[in-house]
Design brief:
This protein is α+β, with helices and mostly antiparallel strands and 213 residues long. The chain is built from seven helices and seven strands; from the N terminus they run ααααβββββαββαα. The termini are far apart.
Length: 213
């Protein structure tokens, strides 16, 4: 008996109609929230790489670094002018609230304002022409913050650079939020939740010590 509950995308993949599957996936991504995508992926794991490749603009890649912040003053993240490496074609910021949007898009924003004295997060975006992971380190992020005019001490947590849909989920996990599992793997989720807890517990003390220096 035919499985009438199968999503049309799954049928196209079964039939190896790759071009039709991509076009259908574009339509799904344009009208589906993150939670809806997670539900579709749970029903057919083949949709995860298909959705991810489209969202990250294959054959290029849009990478994301989920970054947690703790600042004694409101923190303003602006469009960076510095590029982290030669392979980077552009950089920007994505607010963690994007995960609640009616449809996921990789569009960066010109400014994000984060509140003071609380754990916050954002996704730093890097666009490259291929799939080679670019280099990104803490010293570059300090330069980015300084270039936007931020001079007060800021404690950040950043250890992963992954495709941006993964990074957006992990940014939510850094804040301890419940996030439907769509793109990020269990190991990365465990890291993010632990890193968020650690920053929440240690950042106030670190900033107090910095103020006494």
């Amino acid at each position: 008996m035919e499985n009438t509950g199968m999503h049309p995308l799954s049928t196209l993949l079964d039939q190896q109609r790759w071009s039709d599957a991509v076009q259908a996936a574009l339509g799904v991504l344009a009208t589906s929230s993150h939670a809806q995508l997670a539900q579709l992926i749970a029903g057919d794991q083949r949709l995860r790489p298909l959705f991810r490749d489209i969202l990250t603009e294959y054959p290029g890649t849009i990478w994301g670094a989920p970054i947690a912040f703790w600042s004694p003053e409101p923190l303003v993240l602006r469009q960076p002018e510095l590029l982290p490496c030669q392979t980077a074609q552009g950089v920007g910021w994505m607010p963690v609230e994007r995960i609640k949007a009616q449809a996921l898009t990789s569009t960066s924003v010109s400014k994000i304002t984060l509140p003071a004295n609380t754990l916050t997060a954002a996704v730093f975006l890097i666009k490259t022409s291929g799939d080679e992971q670019p280099a990104l380190d803490d010293s570059y992020m300090r330069d980015v913050l300084h270039s936007t005019g931020e001079r007060h001490p800021v404690v950040i947590s950043m250890r992963l650079l992954v495709p941006w849909p993964n990074a957006l989920e992990l940014a939510g996990h850094l804040l301890g939020k419940r996030v439907a599992p769509a793109f990020a793997g269990p190991a990365a989720v465990s890291w993010a939740r632990a890193a968020g807890r650690q920053l929440r517990e240690t950042a106030p003390g670190i900033l107090r010590q910095a103020a006494d220096i």
